[in-house]
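User: Before I run my own analysis I want an independent prediction to cross-check against. Here's the chain; please return only the structure tokens and, at the end, one sentence I can use as a sanity check.
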Amino acid sequence: MARCQWCTAPLPPGGAVCRYCGRRNDVDLKGVHEFTVARPDSPRICPACDVPMQTLDLKLGGTFYIERCERCLSLFFDPNEVETLLEKSAVAAFEVDRVRLDEITRERAGASGAVRYYKCPVCRTAMNRVNFGARSGVIVDRCPAHGMWLESGELRRLLEWKKAGGQILDQRRRADRLEEQLKKAKKEAEEAAATRAIGDLGQDPFTFAATPATDAVAFVRAVLKLFS
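Assistant: Structure tokens:
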């Protein structure tokens, strides 16, 4: 059980704000990642506090820069940096712990408040709310051009999600979705080819040549048309 770094009271499940002293805890980086402040005031603005964010260097395999708000402890990552951080930080899972994944989802659902759309720290346009991966329970804010913003505590939940096999489940879901898309594309191509073949048969049905895309029904219809 995580405890408040200020008063040592137990923190709420999946939460970063202590219910007893009301102070916010750094549950994402403190004790998890060593870092240095590379720039106290970056040009990037915190979507929640509207103040300049710090640039931190997590030193993962060299320099690894991210932005953090010193007030609310939210984090901003350039495109694909969250995935890289999860890959380098979380222990690889080899099976899916569905019980733990359900717990993570319930914890997040209990902590969620009113829906709010935030502006990108870079371009200041509204970001999209996206469910990160399969059954992570973490709704992140993403700018398609500049990256992903995580509120305090969300990175920790993503690390727990990966340890519970959430990434494996997400990869399976993506593979199934790709397979369905390929099947749909193949079916549409075969139907289009069959339509073209039927059109050709309307001109001269005896030039019919069986292909995987043309079936017996189409051939019979073309022959009957000849004698009608």
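Sanity check: The longest helix spans residues 166-203.
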